[in-house]
Amino acid sequence: MKNVEDYMKLPYNYIVQHIVDESGAYFYAHVLELDGCQSTGETFEEAYENLEEAMRGWIETKLEEGFEVPLPVKYNNFSGKFVIRIPKSLHYKLSVEAEQEGVSLNQYALYKLSK
Fold first, then answer.
1. How far apart are CA 106 and CA 81, in angstroms?
2. Which of 17, 97, 105, 114 has its CA at a distance of 20 to 30 angstroms from the CA of residue 59?
């Protein structure tokens, strides 16, 4: 990647959320992969447009300062498998609960993680 426009063409993950808090109702937007790249707007469209402007500035600054700009995270980069170490007592508890439910430990762990 050489310039801001090259990065702007990549499929970054934009997240736009409707927020209602003590300051009122607005839309908050950020780019998942670009830490601190965020914006707001009174409408979804405004927040999205403001985010694109913020993103240009964020990337431009990183490039000028010689920092690496993260590339987009793609869904197909994930296998759906990861390994986690847990205490023996938790392993035992989950195994017992899975057996009581009549499912495998993997199925039970997936159920618990998806809650």
1. 11
2. 17
